[in-house]
Amino acid sequence: MADNANPTSPDNLKPEHLRALYQVSTWINSTLDFDDALDNAMNAIMEVTKAQRGFLMSADVETGEMKVLVAQGIEGNTIESEGYSTTIVNQVVETQEPLLTNNAQFDERFNAGQSIIMRGLRAILAAPMLVQDRLIGVVYVDTSMKAGTFRPDDLSLLQAVSGLAARAIENARLYAVALEKGRLEQELRMAHDIQQNLLPSELPESPHYDIAPYWQAAREVAGDFYDAFTMDDESIGTVMADVSDKGAPAALFMAVARTLLRSNAHAGLDPVEAMSRTNDLIMLDAENSGMFVTMYYSRFQDNGFSQHVNGGHNPPIFYQHKTGKVSLMPTGGRALGWFPNNPLKEITITLEPGDAIIYYTDGLSEAENPRAEPYGEERLMRVVSQIGDKSAKQLMDEILHDVDVFSEGEPPFDDMTMLIVRYNG
After folding, report:
1. SS3 letters for the chain?
2. For each of the chain's 425 residues, which pLDDT tens digit applies?
3. Residue 222, exposed/middle/buried by CB under 10 A (0-12, 13-18, 19+)?
4. How far is CA 380 from each of CA 75, 318, 332, 385, 420, rounded to the nearest angstrom?
5. How many alpha carbons lie under 13 Å from residue 394 in its C-beta half-sphere?
6. Cα-to-chain-centroid distance, residue 282
């Protein structure tokens, strides 16, 4: 009894309808590339119902706007000009119930809309495509006054096919989402690998300097990076930088910036010229990408003499061992890749034994606790003043521990990178 009460039950379908439904089910379920399957399904519906025109529309996931996927007896891009019963389609969308009329011209439910009159439409069948009560689209067929009428079993067939089509469209959407997710995950893995390869596998070895790095991405891929390398004259170059973007594009942009600065540094250019050349070359790539990079470049000699150039980055903290004084190094310059003729300036410092410079990105200074209070440079400087006489690694660990205590378990929202250079004498 329950089956007979169900309009989509096979008991309500004639043999030709059952054959059509079986064919449609086979076509739709055999492939995720469903364009041909839906086209064949529409052909089968029109052949069995003897409809003159028909189309299948899907609803946009975000806007709900209807888009034609399949059209028979009518071109998809001319549906609006040829006319169809928007009144009936809208009613099916609103009620999510199927609809059959064999007297569209005089059916009081529709007040003979303009498209019904203009096309001389007599019989109209429409059914919603639903997945778990969510509208996926509408299947619609119609015929003119002279072509005949539709039967209740035609409506049963249309309902059954609309359910199959809805699941096919939803499966294809989920499949496309899965493919895109896989592509993005692959892109993120590639970007992560690029970044790992960018970070120095070995730090410069020198009896004169103690160097400790820290790098932690807030997500799969970071926008921060650091570098440390030895040049031909045995001087040491260090870089702290932050790319404006994230993901694979940022990782590739980072690779370009790192390679350019290293090349210019190894070419023997002084720090300002190396940064200026890097800025000008980055401009060629940044013009289309819209990305830029803040960068701090330092060069250290064995005797403690050091040169520093800031390209719009957070000013490092300078710890002076003899006096215990802690201060921010001067700001200066603009981010690289932003403007030509970057007003970069060099400052020089002659380090004394025990002096240290702490480079960092804003992910550290702007780390927040659950009350949205930032860690801040003042607290960082206070910690450095208390433990600045420790080794670079110990100083690094103490700073990170203090940030962790301050954050009270709040996860970082930005990448966190540090590089500490301590002069041994």
Report:
1. CHHHHCCCCHHHCCHHHHHHHHHHHHHHHCCCCCHHHHHHHHHHHHHHHCCCEEEEEEECCCCCCEEEEEEECCCHHHHHHHCCCHHHHHHHHHHCCCEEECCCCCCCCCCCCHHHHHHCEEEEEEEEEEECCEEEEEEEEEEECCCCCCCHHHHHHHHHHHHHHHHHHHHHHHHHHHHHHHHHHHHHHHHHHHHHHHCCCCCCCCCCEEEEEEEECCCCCCCEEEEEEECCCCCEEEEEEEECCCHHHHHHHHHHHHHHHHHHHHCCCCHHHHHHHHHHHHHHHHHHHCCCEEEEEEEECCCCEEEEEEECCCCCEEECCCCCCEEECCCCCCCECCCCCCCCCEEEEECCCCCEEEEECHHHHCCECCCCCECCHHHHHHHHHHHCCCCHHHHHHHHHHHHHHHHCCCCCCCCEEEEEEEECC
2. 334 444 445 456 667 767 767 766 766 666 556 576 677 777 777 777 788 888 888 888 777 787 888 887 765 455 555 656 777 888 888 888 888 888 766 666 666 555 555 566 778 888 888 888 888 888 888 887 565 678 888 888 778 877 777 777 777 777 778 878 887 777 777 777 767 777 888 899 999 999 999 987 766 666 788 999 999 889 999 999 988 776 667 777 888 888 899 999 998 899 999 999 999 888 876 666 677 889 999 999 999 999 999 999 999 999 999 999 999 998 878 889 888 888 899 999 999 999 999 999 888 888 888 888 888 889 989 999 998 889 999 999 999 999 888 888 777 767 788 999 999 98
3. buried
4. 68, 11, 21, 9, 13
5. 6
6. 24
